[in-house]
Amino acid sequence: MIFYGTKGAHLKSEKVSVTKCAHCEQQTTYTVSIFGRYAYLYWIPVFPLPKKGVAECDNCKVTLEPKQMDDHLRLKYDNVHRDTKTPITYWIGSLILLAVIAFGIYSVNQHEKDVVEYIKAPQAGDIVEYKPSDFYSTLKITRVENDSVYFAQNTYEIERQSKLYKIDKASNYTEEVYGISLSDYQKMFDTKEFLDVDR
Question: Could you tell me the pTM of the whole model?
């Protein structure tokens, strides 16, 4: 269930003078109040919505929305509205989302750089992802000797490459190992027989 909606909060109130209240016809002041609004997702503010406000006569307590104000009061209201800043907390959801995206991009780029090094210099314990059939599986490097790389094969396969971590368990690998030359190992990444490697 997704919880989303809009909320508001009082941001600022300021007294302004006017020549005369149109309702009580008294020389008085108005209190201009500005309210901030934001959209939220799971109660986390995601982005701000346009601010709203009212002006209340301090004498007769009549409350006016901007469209009901005369030109003089509207000018004073607009000044208060313009000077009221939207809190940065109203952007927190967007900032979190941007941080997650930035971290994801960084992680992908860093992994790609790491993979280049892992392919050049394999180590025991590296997990190689590949697609032996319509499904995906893994190989575990058990040892590297001179110019040869030795693997144990995972006995399980899974439909999605992103879910390979679910079958990457020590008990799933065969005791029997087989080896290939380091050059062949590296070429198999070029030909996409091997898809990725994790360390």
Answer: 0.59
